[in-house]
Amino acid sequence: MIKLVGVTKRLGGQPVLRGVDLVIPPGKLTTIIGRSGEGKSVLLKHIIGLMQPDEGEVWIDGIDIARLRGQALNEIRKRFAMLFQGAALFDSLTVFENVAFPLREKFRLKGADVTRRVEEKLEQVGLSGMGHKFPAELSGGMRKRAGLARALVMEPEIMLFDEPTTGLDPLMAKSIHDLITSMQRKLGFTAVMVSHEIPEIFGISDYVAMLKEGRIALMAESREFQQTDDPDIREFISVGGTIPWPAIDPAG
Amino acid sequence: MVMMLEQFGRWVLNLVSEMGRMLIFVLSAFAWLMRPPLRVAQIVKQVHFIGYKSMFVVVLTAAFTGMVLALQGYYTLRKFGSEGLLGSAVALSMIRELGPVLAALMVTARAGSAMTAEIGIMRITEQIDALDTMAVNPLQYLIAPKLVAGLIGVPLLVAIFDVVGIYGGHLVGVELLGVNAGSYWNAIESAVEWKDVYGGILKSVSFGLIVSWICTYKGFYTKMSAEGLGTATTEAVVLSSVLILIWDYFLTSVLL
After folding, report:
1. How many structural domains compose chain B?
2. Domain that holds residue B183
3. Are the beta carbons of A127 and A159 closer than 8 angstroms?
4. Where are the domains positioned within chain A?
5. How far apart are CA A54 and CA A9, in angstroms?
6. Which end of chain A is more exposed for a tag (fewer CB within 10 A), N or C?
7. Does some domain include residue B108?
């Protein structure tokens, strides 16, 4: 289980997180929403130890990673994978080499085993036969898919998605969402997603949390979240899209 | 007055903390280098980038530096009737001073700026964060091979610079201005001592470290914007060049 307790962070002298308390349920897809600049990506980076809080604790299954450094932190990170906003593919490597990278570097796999697993993941994300291309030769959606393949190939226990559909057309965004949900349901990893895609995220998330003024304003099951009485949250989720009432049920 | 003191104090504190961060950066990178796996392929790739790909510009610079040294040296030495010493003047200037300094400055301009830009773009596009999330230490994977490549590549380039420069001097001094070939080479043989070569090697190794250290550091801690990357690249080139010249003075004063 992922648990954040009183996490605060200042960046460039400005407070971004002002005491975040959040519990992420295991094996579920939790989406964090909030206005631009609220610190959603910063929060996500605290969960994987890319940023350390000024104060507070970040617990991953009973280990406070806010105090970990070096090899100890790397060991915890082996359980994670992350899809970055811009996919963060390595420019100098082909798509195949990008997806193979964590297998070779993190798990020390070689040869045919790597090839089999990489090709399997590329096929799952619809990029069969694209392995020889470089990231610069791919469209935005294809890059996201390649990034997703690189994250999934690690078969992580915890997956973090930082705005996985930003900059994509609605059809491509839907296909990325479908991929994420089908993989999550199939593999059962704990997923934490930062997204602006309202109301779509209500249909795919098990839980939704809203970050507001550096704190979690509300964390609830997707259906329950949509029925909140909080006027600010209602305004945010209704402006984000023409929210259909009654609420979308993630179970279908 | 108090405001000025405050500002000065802040500047000194920032400078000291930046220097501390730079030292921790390079020491951590070398510490990670000691841990397996040893990234031989990465090191070879970087030596190719810093060394082989800088060959053309280094050879060109070396040839013209040697040629102009011979030209200037010839007209100065002729006033004293000592044209025969041209070889030693060219060779000593090359080996002790111009070879290490000019080759290092050329590497800074060609490879150093590219290193800063490459690492900076990797920082901005979160590729360095991606390495971290895959439990691959960026200092070990990205930085350490570049530091090693600087230590290997720059001394090799300096050696090439020296040889090409001396031949450039020969071309102008002997072929164009008519200095006796025997006296040109004989003057080199009698004037150049092991101490001169050793000093040149020491300089080139330390310059190699300066270039790769400063340029990787500036890229690694670039600000997250295009403007930040531009500033980082400029700072890397200027700081490396200035440090090369300052360190050259200190080393020369110690070695003489």
Report:
1. 1
2. 21-32+39-255
3. no
4. 1-69+189-252
5. 5
6. C
7. yes
Give per-residue pLDDT as tens, A155-178. Answer: 889 999 998 888 788 888 888 888
* Residues A92, B127: Cα–Cα separation, whole Å: 11
The answer to whether the CB atoms of B126 and A86 lie below 8 A apart is: yes
Q: Do A90 and B127 touch (CB under 8 A)?
A: yes
The model's pTM: 0.86
Min distance A99 CA to chain B CA atoms (Å): 11
Phi-psi region of A148 (alpha: psi -120 to 50; beta: other; left: phi over 0): alpha
> Is B126 part of a structural domain of the chain?
yes
For the domain made up of A1-69+189-252, the CATH class stated in words is alpha beta
Q: Is A60 on the interface with B (CB under 8 A)?
A: no
Instruction: Choose from B45, B133, B141 for mutation: most chain A CBs within 10 A.
Output: B133
Contact yes or no for B132 and A81 at CB 8 A: no
Interface predicted TM-score of the whole assembly (ipTM), two decimals: 0.84
Q: Residues of A with CB below 8 A from B136's CB? A: 105-106
Contact assessment for residue B154 and residue B103, using Cβ atoms and an 8 Å cutoff: yes
CB pairs under 8 A between A and B: 49
d(CA B213, CA B244): 12
Check B126 against A81: CB less than 8 A apart. no
- How far, in Å, CA of B77 to CA of A78, rounded? 69
Give a yes or no: residue B14 inside a domain.
no
Q: Is A77 on the interface with B (CB under 8 A)?
A: yes
Residue A210 to chain B, least CA–CA distance (Å) = 24
Q: Of A75, A78, A88, which is closest to B129 when you measure between CB atoms? A: A88
- Closest to B147 (Cα-Cα) out of B86, B213, B98, B201: B213
pLDDT in tens, A184-221: 888 889 999 998 888 888 888 999 999 998 899 999 99
Asked whether the beta carbons of A31 and A79 are under 8 A apart, the reply is no
Q: Of B200, B170, B162, which Cα lies nearest the Cα of B87? A: B170
Contact A213, A239 (CB under 8 A): no
Contact B146, B41 (CB under 8 A): no
Say whether B130 and A154 touch across the interface (CB within 8 A): no
